[in-house]
Every structure is written in C-alpha cells, then in structure tokens.
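User: quick one, fold this
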Amino acid sequence: MILFALSSAVKAQLSTDFYQQSWPNLLKIVRKEVQNAIKSEMRMAASLLRLHFHDCFVNVMELFPPDILTIAARDSVVLSGGNSWKVLLGRRDGLVANQTGANAGLPSPFDTVDAIISKFADVGLNVTDVVSLSGAHTIGLATCRTFSNRLFNLFSGTGAPDSTLDSTMATDLQNQCPTTSDGFNTAPLDRNSRDLFDNHYFQNLLTGKSLLGSDQLLFSGDATETTSTKSLVQSYSSNSNLFLTDFANSMIKMGSISPLTGSAGEIRQNCRVVNS
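Assistant:
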C-alpha cells in the first residue's frame, strides 16, 4: 500500500509535457540520435534499454541524464519493432552513483525465480512485471560468462549441459564458448530473432532455447507453478499484442521507481560530473 501511494505521488510529479515550454524538440532530437546510434550499431537498442533498467532499479548512471535515457529506452523498443508509450518526464540527476545497490539489487542471470521476484517486489513491481520486462531479452547479446554454467554444468560436476537447454543449441554454444575462452564471446539472447522486438523470446522458452538460465527458469523452474511465471510465458508466446502491451505498461511502472523530482538531486551543467 505504501509503495503504491509513493508510486502515485511520483506520477503526479512527472508529466508527459514537462519540457513542452523549455525544450519542445527534445523527443524529436532523442529519436533521431537513437535512430542514428542503432543504424551504426544494432545492439545499441538493447544497450540503452539495459541502462534504463539499471538506472530505474538502483540509480547507477553517472553519465546519462535520466529523462533522456528514459526516452532513449522507449525509442529503442519502438525502432526495434515494439509498441510505443507516453514517457513521463521531470527526473533530476543524482548526486552519486549507487554501485553498491547495483551489485545487490539487480537481478542476476544466476538468480532463482524467487530471488528475481523478490528483487522486483523490493521496488514495487509484481510477477507480471518480472515476466514482461524479461521480454526485453528479445533483443541484444550476452557474454559467455553469463551462461557458460549451463553449457558444462560445472555446478553438478557431471560436465553435461543443463538438461533444460536444447541439445543442438547447447552444442553450438559449447563451440562458441569453450572452457578455454575468456568468457567475453557473445551470443544472441533471442536465438533466431536477435534484433526484432517481438514475442519470439517467449517461444524460445517453451522449446528450451533460452540463453540465460534465469530466463529459462521462468518456464522450466520448480517455482513456475506457484508464481504464475509459466502461465505468463505461455500467454505471451501465443499473444504478441498482450506481451507488447504489458511490456509498455511495465516500463511505465519501472520508470516511476523513486525518481528524483522537485528540488531533489540536481540538473547537471555537464552530464559527466556532479555540479561543483
């Protein structure tokens, strides 16, 4: 109840027309710059979306004005094929980057479903938000070190790959991420649909073709029945519109997690440093 009240208060302080008088062309400027960035490097869409996710959860950004990052994340989704939504604006820059919070509060690719749900709940997000926002992994890449434990099952000592991982995919990834590598090779998060923002990610979960173990657990884990993540994955896999709508709504909720507004924080004169 308290979290809901705080969220409602925040939305009252943020608005879609915050820059209508002071910076009327802001949305057009950001859209053009994001479009150019993606045209130059396709995975920039996923990178901007991930930065926004991190900033909303634990306020780790030092070099990016939060409102611009929020707009850029939305535009990255739209330019990759996803739905649009109205972005609430009016955030101020933080005075410090919360690196400790980043390490403790962000969901990890090695987390259990219960741990991820708990981390989302800590910031006022529910299970639907967990599953819909996990769908952001429909674009982008991940390094081998975030999923290599699934390839060689080092935690069990058998040397066999994770039993929930498609065998052909496991073989491909073992060749791409040998035990002798440094762990920085990359693979698409959404096999066979790496740059399109769609519901293919959820279809992969149904066939054991998720890259990250934490993603596959949304469908295959022991906690799926009691937490409803499995039924949500099934719904999104067969209903693209439902996923895209829920994702947009969850992004609005996530963007309203404790932003600095009013007189809190500051408006930096230089994005890279705190005002002196």
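User: anything notable?
Assistant: The radius of gyration is 19 Å.
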